[in-house]
User: Fold Adenylate kinase from Streptomyces abyssalis.
Amino acid sequence: MRIVLVGPPGAGKGTQAAFLAENLSIPHISTGDIFRANISQGTPLGQQAQEYMRAGQLVPDEVTIGMAKDRMAEADAASGFLLDGFPRNIAQAEALDGVLEERSQKLDAVLDLEVPEEEVVKRIAGRRICRSDSSHVFHAQYSPPKQDGVCDVCGGELYQRDDDREETVRKRLAVYHSETEPIIDHYKRQDLVTTISALGEVSEVTERAMQALETARDSVSD
Assistant:
């Protein structure tokens, strides 16, 4: 299957993408991963991206599209892939349509993870990260440390990243609504979108997502 995963920051896209890709035996292709891979390998696209990033500028769509196109052409993506973080706007969605058309391929489904805005703010703004080891993550409400401000694992100081502050989260959500959310209507016109609730336990969301994808696969095969 060829799938695009869409949802606001804090919807759990990365977590769900990993589970879904494993269940479906297709690669999980995230924008962050392809950026890091191209930069670490010193590819021409990676060098271009790094120049923009060092200057504090957004990486142009054509560079992001080029990286995604190269990644989708790799052998492990021949029978399908799950895109996470791409396309991020209408221009990228239209470019993806063109790439797939050139290859006589098409998307099978666009999975829209729906989360109320206040829940997104609560999820992200409540995160607390250990300064000693950033893999130690807590949440002020959902998984609080035994002692306020202290990591249960190593005793390091817990802090709130600037990106996780409420005002920053609300700005990120505004960008999502203005730039990324319109691709949902783009794909609705192609009858590809299934919206599922991303509330509840991770396993419950995964089950909903798998059921939605099974339904999408059945409709394609009919």
The CA atoms of residues 49 and 209 lie 33 Å apart. The longest strand covers residues 109-114.
